[in-house]
Amino acid sequence: MMGNRSSATEFCLLGFPGSQELHHLLFAIFFFFYSVTLMGNTIIIVIVCVDKRLKSPMYFFLGHLSALEILVTSIIVPVMLWGLLLPGMQTLSLTECVAQLFLYLAVGTTEFALLGAMAVDRYVAVCNPLRYNIIMNSRTCIWVVIVSWVFGFLSEIWPVYATFQFTFCKSNLLDHFYCDRGQLLKLSCDDSLFTEFVLYPLSLWPGKAFSTCASHCTFVVIGYGSCLFLYVKPKQTQAAEYNKIASLLISVLTPFLNPFIFTLRNDKVKEALRDSMKRCCQLLKE
Fold this sequence. Notes:
Elements: E1 10-13, H1 20-50, H2 57-85, E2 90-93, H3 94-127, H4 132-135, H5 138-154, H6 157-163, E3 173-174, H7 181-186, H8 193-202, H9 214-231, H10 240-263, H11 267-285
Parallel strand pairs: 1-3
Antiparallel strand pairs: 1-2
Helix pairs in contact: 1-2, 1-10, 2-3, 2-10, 3-5, 9-10
Pfam families: 7tm_1 (PF00001)
InterPro entries: GPCR_Rhodpsn, GPCR_Rhodpsn_7TM, Olfact_rcpt, Olfact_rcpt_6C-like
Protein name: Olfactory receptor
C-alpha cells in the first residue's frame, strides 16, 4: 500500500496465478501462438507484396491488417512471456506503462478503423461493381490507410493522457499481464467516474466496422466483442480474471486466427501460397 497520496512511479504486474510449472506450460502455449501469428501474418504481407494476382484493394488492406496484427500482439505478448519466466513479479516503470497502453490502444483503434474501410470496400464491390475500380483506386486506398493510422494514434492521445492524470496511491500492484486501463483506474485514489463516462462513447465508434463477408464477421465478433467487454462499460474496473480472458482474445487469439480467417477461405491467396511454395522448392533443388 502507498500512503500520503503519492502516485506510483512503477507498477508490478501480477500476471497469471499458479505454480512455476503452470507458468512454464502457459509460456510454451503462448509462445507457440505468438510464433504462428508472426509467421502467418508475415507470409500474408510478403505474398500480397510480390504476387500480381493480389493487387486489388481488398488484399492491400489485408496486408496492412496483418501488419497491425503483428504490432498489437508484439506490444503485449513478449512482455507477458517474459513475466511467465520470471520467478517473481514483473515491474514496469510509469513511462513503460504509458507507452505500452498508448501503443496498444492506438494500434487497436487503427485496426478497427481499417476493418471499417474493408467493410466499405466489400460493400462497394458487391453493390456497385461497375464503378468499383473507379471508387477504390490506388490513391483512395493509400489515403484510407494513412487516415486509419493517423486517426488511430491521434484518437488515443487524450484517453491515455486522462488515465495517467490520476493519482495511483492505493497500490502499485496491477492484477494483469500488461498495463490495462481498467486495472489502473482501480488503483486511483481520485474519482474516475467522469473520465470513464467520457471514455465510454469513445469506445463505441469501432462498432460501425461490419462486413458482408463471413470471414470479416468472424474477425469482428471475436475482436470487437472482446473490446466491448473490456472498454464499452460505464464502469471499467471489472473483475481481473474476466479482463485477462478478454485481453487474451484480443492480443493472442485474434492475431493468431487472422491468417486462417482471411486466407484459407480465399482461393486466390491459396493459389498464391501454392505457387510460392513450388518456387521455393524449385530454388532449393537447384
